[in-house]
TrEMBL record:
Domain Methyltransferase type: 166-285
Keywords annotated in UniProt: Methyltransferase, Transferase
Species this chain originates from: Syntrophus gentianae
Lineage top rank: taxon: Bacteria
A Pfam family it matches: Methyltransf_11
GO molecular function: S-adenosylmethionine-dependent methyltransferase activity
InterPro entries: Methyltransf_11, SAM-dependent_MTases_sf
Protein name: Methyltransferase domain-containing protein
Length: 371
């Protein structure tokens, strides 16, 4: 919650780098565990690096990873990532609303610029709309839907053990800030969308949220308001791939990953990675609407949603339950067990006259001891 106090902190925090000891993503794909070290600090604040280079410590690799706007980009295929994300990486955020709207009209609907503004509009509204003084009185689709999922999940998951917490697919970061506040642990929010993480990191840097709120079509209004959170110094945001996390086994005491399972290209690798990076006994809160699309996940990798003539009749929750029950499924994740599950509504605002309502499968899972 915003408490009106000014606590500005610049990412990337050396605290997170030291405690989480990230591994080189390139070496990880080759089956090696090589810690990253700080290669160059180009711009820094107190205990933070705003621009710099992280380097693989393995002398036969020496891969470099940039820290941009305080956000380290730790993915194995860096060249592809940078090429595909040049817009949010290089995009300026100092334009007036008039110029932004003129450029938006030129880029047009369906452009990368338009898609990025739509994502920011939808997720920044849901994550922070409750703190926006300009937001109209509660509507039929008020913001804070994801916070409700987090609350429901944490009620069951509790805080079983101490240690760093990961928020996988954190988008613009509200759930990471709430975790920092509720658990008083080091929290790392990770996502692949640089523009969304830049919005989250700007809250750390400037104590302010700025986002384009879609009215309709390609008409957006820029919203800017102060936002600050207790324990924000415990939170940081990194670009990492949920299906190939650059951390050693058992790094995190707990995890949260809301509405991400149906967005990754390999839900199997995603579940395996959650199982790998959790400490034994560690809980994770997961939710998903199973809103499969072939753009995000190849049909062969969907959990259910196809092959309705099979044992599970195409039911996604049944396939997921079977993966987590250590059964005969070839992709069973033996080390994880399902602790609780329920269906909870999750609502997203698309524009002034459109909302999307899901019923998500909210689960608490646990990494078994001795696995
Ligand atoms: C549907 S959004 C959910 C965001 C947020 N957790 C929430 O519920 O409001 C899915 C998020 O997962 C991220 N994502 C998709 N694939 C990913 C991957 N392989 N690694 C990390 N994040 C990923 C997207 O960029 C997006 O921010």
């Amino acid at each position: 919650m915003s408490d009106g106090h000014d606590r500005r902190i610049n990412p990337i925090k050396r605290l997170h780098f030291e405690k989480l000891s990230p591994l080189c993503p390139v070496c990880r794909t080759a089956g090696r565990e090589s810690p990253l070290k700080i290669g160059a600090v180009l711009k820094e604040g107190k205990d933070t690096i705003t621009e710099g280079v992280l380097v693989c410590s393995n002398s036969s690799c020496l891969s470099e990873y940039p820290v941009l706007d305080g956000i380290p980009i730790l993915v194995a295929n860096l060249r592809t990532y940078i090429a595909q994300n040049f817009l949010p990486i290089l995009c300026r955020d100092d334009l007036s609303e008039t110029m932004e709207s003129l450029l938006g009209d030129c880029f047009g609907p369906g452009s990368a610029f338009d898609s990025q503004r739509q994502y920011l509009s939808t997720y920044a509204f849901d994550h922070y709309g409750d703190l926006d003084p300009e937001e109209p009185a509660p509507s039929s689709a008020p913001p804070g839907s994801v916070l409700n999922l987090l609350r429901e999940g944490l009620q069951v998951a509790g805080h079983a053990q101490r240690g760093p917490v990961i928020d996988i697919g954190c988008a613009v970061g509200r759930t990471s800030f709430e975790l920092g506040k509720a658990l008083d642990e080091i929290v790392l929010g990770i996502d692949l969308n640089f523009g969304m993480l830049k919005t989250a990191a700007a809250i750390l840097e400037k104590g302010c949220l700025s986002y384009p709120r879609r009215r309709g079509g390609i008409a957006f209004e820029r919203r800017r308001f102060p936002v600050s959170f207790d324990k924000a110094e415990k939170v940081d945001f990194w670009v990492c791939d949920a299906t190939a996390l650059p951390f050693a086994e058992g790094t995190f005491s707990a995890g949260v990953s809301l509405n991400v399972l149906d967005c990754v290209w390999s839900p199997y690798d995603y579940l395996r990675e959650i199982s790998r990076i959790l400490m034994p006994g560690g809980n994770a809160v997961l939710s998903t609407p199973y809103d499969w699309t072939a753009n995000a996940t190849p049909v062969e990798a969907w959990l259910g949603g196809h092959s309705q003539r099979s044992e599970h009749k195409g039911s996604s929750p049944d396939v997921l339950r079977s993966l987590l029950s250590g059964g005969l499924h070839p992709h069973a994740v033996e080390a994880l067990e399902l602790i609780s599950e329920k269906d909870v509504p999750w609502t997203l605002r698309l524009h002034d006259r459109s909302i999307m309502e899901y019923l998500v499968h909210l689960m608490v899972i646990r990494k078994k001891h001795g696995e």
